[in-house]
Amino acid sequence: MHQKTISADFRQTLKDATGTIDYSYLNDYMFRAVLQTDPTALKGLVSAVLHLPMEQISSLEIMNPIELGKSIDNKTFILDIRVNLNNNANINLEMQVSDLDNWTERSLSYLCRTYDELQRGVNYLFAKPAIHIGFLDYDLFPDQPEFFATYRLLNEKNRNLYTDKFALCVLSLNQIHLATEDDCLWKIDQWARLFKATTWEDIKMIAENDTSLQSASATLYKLNADELIREQCRAREDYYQLMNTHKYKMQMLEAELAEKDASLAEQAALIQALEEKLKKYES
After folding, report:
1. What b/e sequence results for 48-86 when a residue is b if at least 16 CB atoms lie within 10 Å of its CB, and e otherwise?
2. Most buried residue, 67, 174, 195, 217, by CB count within 10 Å?
3. Residue 2 falls within a domain, yes or no?
4. Three-state DSSP class for 266?
5. How far apart are the first and last CA of the chain?
6. In whole angstroms, how far apart are CA 232 and each of 61, 81, 129, 134?
């Protein structure tokens, strides 16, 4: 088992670390490994995103822990993290770096499953709030860029809230420059910068004045030195590279088909025009 505390030795070693980070938080396996290993980092991130003061977080329990370092099977293929907050709300966190064109549907499906956890016969009033938090390394809605957004069920006419037990949060790591004063006050922008950092120098500068960020940074450094963790991070990179290759090939095929369809349509139009001319001659 990986230790859940970060020793002073690792903190000291991190101070001397330089150069490129081999596996950053943008690797979804590393993202999962850090948050599962480091309760201080998890608490700091949840506090920031939910605008919840640290002292109001009494407990955070990961409901779907995985055996870190073990090869990923079908059950752990999707590396979301399900967390119970204060035994009063269920949160789903996920890092997504590749746009698979299905995030809105997928996140809604996850949110519904997270909410629909009541045992048979239990009153619906006891359903716990469900929150899905997505950290995306692309723009979900490119025509309406936004750094951090929360979506809820609202009345279209008067904006009245239908329920406060259902929420989707989306953080776009490509739009940190659009962070609001509120985002900065809760240090959501700092977490985003930490996730996007590519060098240890950047990591240390970002985490300099925050205990949770420092703990997350030290854990990242520690896990980057663990060969079993590195092996799984490499496997995830290979997977996304394969997915991107397939997506590129699909796009190329779609473009070719569109070009052929356009050509066929053009030929059909020419044939129709010739047929009309022949009809005129025949008459």
Report:
1. bbbebeeeebeebebeeebebbeeeeeebeebbbbbebe
2. 217
3. no
4. helix
5. 89
6. 23, 17, 32, 21
3-state secondary structure at position 136: strand
pLDDT per position in the chain (283 positions), as tens?
A: 344 445 455 555 788 899 999 999 999 999 999 999 999 999 999 999 999 999 999 999 999 999 898 877 644 556 789 999 999 999 999 999 888 788 999 899 989 988 887 777 778 888 899 999 999 999 999 999 999 999 999 999 999 999 999 999 999 999 999 999 999 999 999 999 999 999 999 999 999 999 999 999 999 999 999 999 999 999 989 888 777 665 666 767 776 777 777 777 778 888 887 777 776 666 5
Q: Rounded CA gap, 94 and 256, in Å?
A: 35
User: Would you say residue 206 lies in a domain?
Assistant: yes
Our CA angle for 139, 34, 51, nearest 5°, is 60
Distance between CA atoms of 220 and 225, rounded to whole angstroms?
A: 9
130-136 and 81-85 beta bridge pairing? unpaired
Asked if 73 and 46 count as a contact pair (C-beta separation under 8 A), the reply is no
| Of residues 99, 94, 72, 102, the one with CA closest to residue 25 | 94
**Bridge partner list, 170:** 134, 149
Reduced to 3 states (helix: H, G, I; strand: E, B; else coil), residue 133 is strand
Strands (E), the chain: 60-62, 81-85, 89-96, 130-136, 148-151, 166-172
What is the extent of the structural domain holding 214? 8-246
Please report whether residue 277 resides in a domain.
no
Q: What is d(CA 209, CA 29) in angstroms, rounded to the nearest whole number?
A: 26
C-alpha–C-alpha distance, residues 50 and 85, integer Å: 11
Give the integer Cα–Cα distance in Å for 46 and 111: 16
What is the number of domains present in the chain?
1
Q: Which two tokens stand for residue 266?
A: 């053009």
